[in-house]
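ok so for the tutorial part 2 we go from a plain amino acid sequence to predicted structure tokens. step 1 is just haveing the sequence, like this:
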Amino acid sequence: MADTRVSRLLVLEDERNVGATLVERLRKEGYEVAWSMSVEEARLEIQQRKFDLALLDVGLPDGSGFQVAEALRRLAPSTSIIFLTAYGSPEDRVRGLELGAEDYVVKPFHLKELLLRVNNGLKRARYLSGAFGTEGEQLTIGKAVVNFSRFEAQVDGKSHSLTHKEIALLRLLAERRGKVVSRDEILNQVWSEDEYPTSRTIDNFIMRLRRLVEVDPENPQVIKSIRGVGYQLL
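step 2 — the prediction. this is what the tokens look like for a chain of 234 residues:
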């Protein structure tokens, strides 16, 4: 049966004109939207209800969108996160990835492009909603213990947050464990055409995952490259 539930979005944006325009357009697209203008307001929202996706401004008068992302990782790890920022520094991008961000959008942004990214994030969330069964179910991949429902991997006693794209890629490889998954299939399942992915995009994600699951990422024994075809999880 198709999922007909309306997707619920949280917008954290303190610039009134930007926030009002964004919320109005998202609601026209059919989403249920809650708008917060401060970290404190957003924290109250995520404590009271669950969101499918959160658009979080990085710089707020009372803190940072990163703080709300940290709270979401604890309370609702399946929530897709897209950061909005006026700067887009490399340090901020790394911090966003560490918190499991789905995407990172630099202001000023084109509204149509942002809506596509929101739609893609929600598609991946739906794909992952039933990943490997119940809450807390885990799968050992190399030296990592991956919890798909919590979007994290435990390695040597340390927890690492995983983005929706990383989890989607791991899920696809795990579902086909022992078989070769082509690059085209990975691109079609994990990304979408309007995100303009390339083979290099896949390579970069595979490199990040190997750092988690491989004993020696330079000599991979868990996620193998099959030249000219794709990848295989052993």
